[in-house]
Amino acid sequence: MGGTVVSGSFQGYDQSYLINALQTLCENFVGVTQLPYNTSDDEIIKLNELGVKAIRFNVNRGSSEDISRLDYLARRVYELVNWHTELYIDSNSLTEITTIVAKLPSVSIDHLGLSKSGFTNLLSLVDKGVRVKATGFGRINFDAEEAKKVLYKNALNWYLKISV
Length: 164
What we know:
Elements: E1 3-6, H1 16-24, E2 29-33, H2 41-49, E3 52-58, H3 70-81, E4 84-88, H4 98-103, E5 107-109, H5 119-126, E6 131-132, H6 144-163
Parallel strand pairs: 1-2, 2-3, 3-4, 4-5, 5-6
């Protein structure tokens, strides 16, 4: 048994909830947290040792680091402890940061990108290897089953393209 515990929007940078959850659950659970850009290397390493394995930018609801720090912070945690970056963002907002997101070492977008009107923005990043989490179906405004099929097809095409 295992899973992922994601810091809630209301928790901001408070790590106590996440650390408590990870210490309470079995070792097969990992954490996803929100951090300010100036978090020390020692703190990031400590969180990694406690089971945190990703950083989240909560663009949709706030309570996380500003998106202008995405490139810096995503690369920093990846180089330091091999964390991936998660974006909780409406896919309509991806056009502003597509170039940055496409070049990050390890990134995923939460909740199928949230909106149907921005789904093509999401697909353009999938074509560049960005992963998408099929979660939060109650938060989206389109058919999740159809979206998952399209995403699977695009991801498979991308994989086949780079495998040749």
